Amino acid sequence: MASPDTRTQILDAAERLFAEHGFRGTSVRAITDLAGANLAAVGYHFGSKAELLAAVIRRVIGPIIAAQNAGLDRLLARTPDPPVTELVEAFAGPMFDEMPASDDGRARTSRLIVTIFGDPAEEMRNWTGSAEDTVRDRYLAAFGRALPDLSPQELWFRIRGILAVVAVDRAEVYNQPSSATQSPVAGEAARRWAITFLAAAMSAPPTAA
What we know:
Order of helices and strands: HHHHHHHHH
Radius of gyration: 18 Å
Distance between the termini: 60 Å
Shape: elongated
Largest sheet: none
C-alpha cells in the first residue's frame, strides 16, 4: 500500500489535533511535526491554518452530507411531505452510520463535531460552504412543512439539538476504554433510541411565548 501523500498526512494530523485541542490550541508547527512535513507545507497545500481547518471538517463531514441528501431524496421521491420520524432518521441516521464506535478513525469525527460546537474560535463558525448550506436549507424546508406551527427560530434550534445529541453520544462512545467499547448491536440500539427520542423532541408542541 502506498504511503499517504503530504497533503493527506497534514489532514490526518490536523484532524486529530483540532479535535483534541481546538483551533487556537493547535499550532501549525504541531500539525506539521505530527505529519512529518515541513512548516511551509500547510501554506503550500491549504493557504492558511483556517483553510486547513475548513478542509479537515469538509473531509469528515462530506460523507454525512452526501448520505443526508440521498436520504431526503428517497423520502421526497415517495411523498412531498415526509413525516417527522422519517426526516429525523434521514438526517440523524448518517451521523451514526458514518461515525461507528468500532472505527477509530471515523469515531474521531464525533470529537471534531463536539469541538466545533464548543470552540469559541471564529474560524469554527466560518468553515461552511455551499454543500453544507444546501443540506441545511433542504432539511429546514422539509421539517418546516412537517412542523408548520414552529417558528423558524425554534425549528432551527431543534435541528441543532439533533446534531448535538448525536455528536455527544458518539464522542462518549469514542472516549470509553477499549475494553468497554459498545458492540455493533449496542451501537444500532443507540441509533434507534436517538431517532425515537429526537423525533419526539422535534414533534413537541411549540414553546409558549
